[in-house]
Amino acid sequence: MMLEPDLFKRGMRRLASGVSIITTVDAGERHGMVATSVCSVSAEPPTLLVCVNRSATSHAAIRRAGFFCVNLLAEQDDQLARRFSTPVGRDQRFDDRQWTTLTTSAPALVGSLASFDSEVVEAVDVQSHTVFIGRVKAIELWQSEFVPLVYHDGRFDTLRGPGQSKSEPA
Ligand SMILES: Cc1cc2nc3c(=O)[nH]c(=O)nc-3n(C[C@H](O)[C@H](O)[C@H](O)COP(=O)(O)O)c2cc1C
Which domains are present in the chain? Predict the structure, then answer.
C-alpha cells in the first residue's frame, strides 16, 4: 500500500527538532539556510550529517565547496531562522549579525549555541535531497548558558516549559 505523503508530513510535525543554519561559501559568495535535519553520526571521529534539498541555493554551493558549517540557534534567533528559510531577502541574510570563520571559510555565527565547521566526506543522493556527511574540523561553543530554538508542529518554540512559548506559527 502506498502511504500518503501528507500523512508522513503530519507524523513528522510531531518530531521536535533543534534548528540550525547551515552555511558555506562558493566563488566568494556566502550561502546559508535553515535546517532541522542535522544529526550526529559519530564522535570518533566527530562526524555529522545534514539533508539538503536539491532545490536549495546552498545545495550546489556545498557540493562545489566541499565544506559547510552547522550553527545551532538559540531561542532568541527565531527571526534570523525565518530569514534563512524563505527566499525573500536572500541577499540580506548575513547582514545584521556577526559572522566569522573557523577552519574552512564557511561562515560561523558568533553568539549561536555552537558552530561545527565540517568538510564533506560523503554525499548521498536520496530522492529530493542529498545527505551531506561532514567530518568536523573545528567546533566553537559560543555560550555556556543557553536555551535552544526548537521547531515543532510547524512553529518555532522554546524549551522553557509549558505555556511559555514565545513564537507565533511560522
Ligand atoms: C524549521 C525549518 C526546517 C527546515 N529544514 C530543512 C532541512 O533540513 N533541509 C532542507 O533542505 N530544507 C530545510 N528547510 C527549508 C529551507 O530552509 C528553505 O527552503 C530555504 O529557503 C532554502 O534556502 P534558499 O532560499 O537559499 O534556497 C527548513 C525550513 C524550516 C522553516
Answer: 19-157 (2.30.110.10)
